[in-house]
Amino acid sequence: TNEEYGFFLTKSVDEIVEAVSESRPDLSASSAEDGTVTIAFTDIEDSMRLNAFLGDRRWLEVLRAHNDVVRNVTTNHGGTVVKGQGDGFMLAFASARRALTCSQAIERSISETFKDPGSLVRVRIGLHVGETTREADDFFGHAVNYAARIASSAAGGEIVVSSLVYGLLAQTGEFEFEPAREVELKGVEGRQMVYPLAVAG
């Protein structure tokens, strides 16, 4: 309903982090055998500005189409939608490879869905991997938050991974990465290295 989406419009990735940190959803079904889970956060770049530009009615149409893409592609790639609010999503995967392949598919599908010349809908995605077998406080307090901050360092249309995800995937030769970037992440001490995925073509 419009009321439902209107409520969601005020939410953000930060609020998803807060919600899952409080509820601590069971991610065991999305975990690898070694207890790790790869987390992806996605959102639309400059969504508040885009909402104001498009107006509420058109924005709701964009939001529905965007949300359908993220949910459907994630399901088709064996991922789990842990939480979705507004234009932000937290996704979980049992493997880093599957998470990154899904992220690529989301970007492709978003480009196809919003292919009109001049479309301003651009999604940014960040990935990190953590151990669910460790204390819940540690996992939901750090790993989930860190994944969200990685996403916030990305530009629209960009997929950025943490050094841990990069370490798991760079040597496979299946994915090509741009040179590392050194960034400051909100709430994380020190400068961090992140790795943008190279855009095909």
Give an account of the 3D structure.
- The protein has 201 residues and is an alpha+beta fold.
- Helix content is 44%, strand content 22%.
- The protein is built from 7 helices and 7 strands; from the N terminus they run ααβααββαβαβαββ.
- The protein has a 7-stranded mixed beta sheet, with helices on both faces.
- Helix 2 runs antiparallel to helix 6 (136-152), helix 3 packs across helix 4 and helix 4 (56-76) packs antiparallel against helix 5 (96-113).
- The longest helix has 21 residues, at 56-76.
Topology (SSEs and partners):
Blueprint: H1 2-8, H2 13-23, E1 36-44, H3 47-54, H4 56-76, E2 80-85, E3 88-93, H5 96-113, E4 123-131, H6 136-152, E5 159-162, H7 163-169, E6 181-184, E7 191-196
Parallel strand pairs: 4-5
Antiparallel strand pairs: 1-3, 1-4, 2-3, 5-7, 6-7
